[in-house]
């Protein structure tokens, strides 16, 4: 089979008779005279006769790819045919690093699925790099377009020398039938005179193939088989190379692994040729998936008819073909034979099969740094791995230390809590027979020592328990549940089915029918051990983060989409489509996950699951890590059983607001957060989040002052004479601890994250934190309730309940007005009550709503208007279960202590035993009212002059103004909240009526004769009671908003809704009823309440034709409303003058006449 380049072959025209003569002469020459003199002509003739399909490149042959861009290769086919494979080849500088995404191959108008490991082979490590697509079997015509779009690049690169090569069906069927004679060895252009006959090798830099595995060395071979004749010759360039098919009897399950060092003796019946071109020192072969691959090989000439070839490690499958590029035939009658000698390995002692070890006991030394988590990685960190490394977590996952190394490559790591051993399944080590795939390994978690228990068989049989080679060689997921040890190959190379392992008999059975898992590792929750949990790979989940839950009693699988899950400080999973190839369980009951496969990095995360067995579990993303060991093949495991009670630890957290003070001209609040080990056993530590309510007054990293970690308090425990610190790792160090403060460029955050590593018994760490007290838009400090708390997430399973002492919080409280207006006290003149609630609760922040809330002294202080004299207050306390106390009455003007000087109050978590999660204090204040002291004109300092009145409620800087309305203030720990109830509803409705002017009833409210057809607008006066106009003469509605109007059943009457009282307003008529004159100027009027609470309206200007009052002044109906005002505006018929002291319309008539006369005079002059 040949890769045809895009070079065009130009046709040559010849006379048929002359051509026949030439052919005859050439035939004689080639057969009898100089058979070895013109081999290039043979190659060219063969190439010219080939009918293979070629591709011409349409896109540029040099592409500059930027980070985040995609490379697209485009071309078209020059002729018709059926293509089998496409190869996209290019040089790259500095290197091509692509994101994990899909390749898009389009031929014509057809998009062809492409998947790495199936029909796509990628070699981007060397230069030139190649992207090879196989198994196409696609018919194309001349001119058919072809394109390949690669995933986006992770870094900039330059691609040059781009070419698209194709293998067609005609190439595969090609046979050389040229009637030419044998070429002599002496004149062969492939091996010129004087060429070395010694062994020729090629450096890895010269090869396009992947470097061979680091494999076990071998002794002399003992397996030999011979192939008597090549099945055909394949034209590669100008060389006809032998193509062999390995006999079926030599294959196992359709494949054969030719180990590194396999010797192939090629012998020909006549002289043949060895190429000296280093680029030809390679082989081509069909792999497991049937696709074509190439690899470097070493060629040595023994004689003109005999050659030795030394192979790298390869596995031949598919059609079981192998081609030798380094040798080529002479005459067409040349026959090659091939003798393969496969060496026998010399195995290390660690590969020997052993008996299962007895159960072991946990020791205090294993918990010297808290509960351990184990992670296995392989090196090199790609598919060519030959070493496994067992790592153990230290210092809260910030450091992973090596436990042990082995030549075994293993995965499906799981901890058996019944015997305290780790177990794993070995993976294929590149065909190494000393370390085969599918063996059960027993691993000492203290040392990493491996005990090979042998291959896993079916029960009662010597056959492998695994149904496919992929399952046997690449088991990648495993965990112990309450039902046993479950494993599977859940990657693309496996069936994704489940196997259950019996470690006593080293056997397995497939379980759960045809159920399939796409999670590449699983973990188990300690409190629900029948389920195993894992995140699906991209093969199933695409770009989403999909969690699987597998019931190991039934095999039932449920899934949840957690793509958008975030930590409480707003961080999300940046690589949801990763292969989550390692999973483990923290001692605290949370699950940990890390990435693997080709996109493996050091990213991982910790997940908390509640209500795990329900149909609707809840999930919390606890933490995101960036320090996990990275490897293509990787796995994690941990002990589900917590330490025995005598080895358990406990961490407690406290938070104390120490002070608020000015520092460098900035007001800051300071806290001390204490994390303390309250037991005599070491703890693995944990992390905590300090919640700061930036929406109210603490700026964490806003565009101004930021929160700060001020350092460690002087009372922190010193270890080895050292204070805690983020650099304290290793022997002789202090306690590993620190805090992460979001940078000013990362956006607003409500959280500061702290952490502490291994913490000795009775030790503590004090973290000092400060944050600026945020100012409002007026430059004043916020004084409203702003809860502040810290939540600790310990890594270990603790001696005390998990949430018993892991949260410290500043309680939040709210002052809430219950009544909308005062309520009169029956039997008492001018005495009223108003009711407020003071509600104390846990701050509403995710992740911290399941802990008790503690708070101290709470006071309530009425700061009413001077017209209201407080005589006392009664308080009813309702706990979180809505159980009320007896009312307690305190005489006097306050302040009133709502919870006295008793011990701090504790609120049970919301939802626990029906708890509401809050305490409510119902405060009823009693007061006497002296209406004579109410003032309709005063406003608080700095407020606009309208609306006015000390009976109103005014807000300034987030709090209600004292001594206005019935303002009430609650205070706890220096923070305050207020609410206010107005003494009177200050909004007034006014009826506006249009009437015909009646000189006999001028200045009186009329009951009939309303006029329809008028249009007018009422505007509220500005802050100074003025009416302002725009340059065009229209009213400036930004400062003088129009009043809402509504129609009534009576014609000529509208209702003005919600006027402030007191307030200043202006009425402008824009259309008069038919036959009447417009008002000559705006009518200015005021609204207020009289001493009896009645609407009182005064006409202030422009009111010669206006009359005002309230509804009851017009009607004798007892159901009239004295709180509704009335304004009547009289319109004058045209030509009629009012009998009032006003100027009337005479002036306007005179002015109009003068304008008309002036206009006529000007017109006459213009005509003259």
Q: SS-based structural class?
A: mainly beta
Radius of gyration: 46 Å
How much of the sequence is in beta strands?
Answer: 35-45%
Which regions are unreliable across 5 or more consecutive residues at pLDDT < 50?
A: 1-51, 172-221, 629-633, 694-705, 744-748, 1139-1168
Percent helix:
under 10%
What is the overall silhouette?
elongated
**Main pleated-sheet profile:** 6 strands, antiparallel
Could you tell me the mean pLDDT? 77
Written account of the structure:
- This protein has 1168 residues and is mainly beta.
- 6% of the residues lie in helices and 40% in strands.
- Strands 2, 4, 7, 8, 9 and 11 form a six-stranded antiparallel beta sheet that branches. Strands 55, 56, 57, 60, 61 and 64 form a six-stranded antiparallel beta sheet that branches.
- The protein is elongated.
- The termini are far apart.
- Mean pLDDT is 77; it is low at 1-51, 172-221, 629-633, 694-705, 744-748 and 1139-1168.
